[in-house]
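Example (one chain per record):
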Amino acid sequence: MRKQTNKRMVFDVRNFGIPRCPQFGHYKYNNATSGLKDHIHTDTLEICYFLKGVQRYTIGDQLLELTGNDMLIIAPNTAHSTGIYPEDKGELYWLQISTDHTLGALCHLPNTFSDLLVNELTRNTHKVFKGAFLMKSVLSKLEQEIQKTESLMREVRINQLIYQILMETITLSKNQEASPVSDRLQLIDGFIAEHMDRTIFVDELASLIGLSVPYFKEWFKKKQGVPPKEYMNRAKIERAKADLLRKSSVTRVAFDLGYSSSQYFATTFKKYMGITPKSYITSVQKEKTSYETLR
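Predicted structure:
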């Protein structure tokens, strides 16, 4: 069976009779793609729900990392991007809401209620918090509804689903704080860092913290948002990014990280970073030169 390629869908929800929602989108990437350039949404906040994988965002001087089931609200008129990172392998929904009530009612609510919803969402921007299964279900229903044949009932259902998304987002953003890293996860990170030069097997990690392999896989994905093997791959790529800037060759970096060949390493690196190791070195060197010139 042919593996599904990267898929991205973007809708201008204003075309469906919703004047306060300029954009709703959904992507599902099997490979990393080009990074998101620095941009702002004028008088518009953005709700992001990351279903799986890992994605990093730069907002001002903050670097935020989203993993599976994480949510983030980006404030209006705020520059943000993925920085030096690509749009990573994973799945993301996003919904934009205009803060300008002169455009009309939000979800057919009176202005007082519309402004209240917007104010509550804006209070909880730029912090990562956990989503819920209900959120995934409602976002999926919204995507399906938008693609149905035009009718007055379709507009009513879209409004109802957006209202439900906003209320659920407010509740989740208030009730949850980021949890500290557990002792088990610290132990696993230490083991991975110590054995970065070879293949690490999942049963080793499971044994390390006294769990069966099936239970460990389920537990780990729930905690970190990605399966153990993908987490280890990402850890190696993060190490590789530093090693590529200080070691003599790509081949040396590949072998030092336990890859069987430089070609396999380059393929894996591109899968997660969207560019080859050599292109990464070039881009970092250009950035450094440009920065030094500006100074």
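Caption: The two ends are 53 Å apart (CA to CA).
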